[in-house]
Amino acid sequence: MLTSKQKKYLKSEAHALKPIFQVGKDGVGMKQANSINDALKAKELIKVKLLDTCPQTVNEAALEISRLTKAEVVHIIGHTIILYKASEKGIYQI
Prior knowledge:
4-stranded mixed β-sheet
């Protein structure tokens, strides 16, 4: 579980990032969750964008991705989810 200071730091780091995944009409599935998990292992901090065609709400999608990847939801803004998962590399010192 991240503290509020850690979340604030990660939000500031994520500000410059572009979303690298888009969730569309199929919603969040295992195949997409595996791809997101691989990206989290490599980068630790990523953004995921929900398209208007997504059948899930942004909160439902964030919870589903978090459950499937065991990542922390740092912040949700609009249709964008910021996710963090610590890796062995330790890119972000929190």
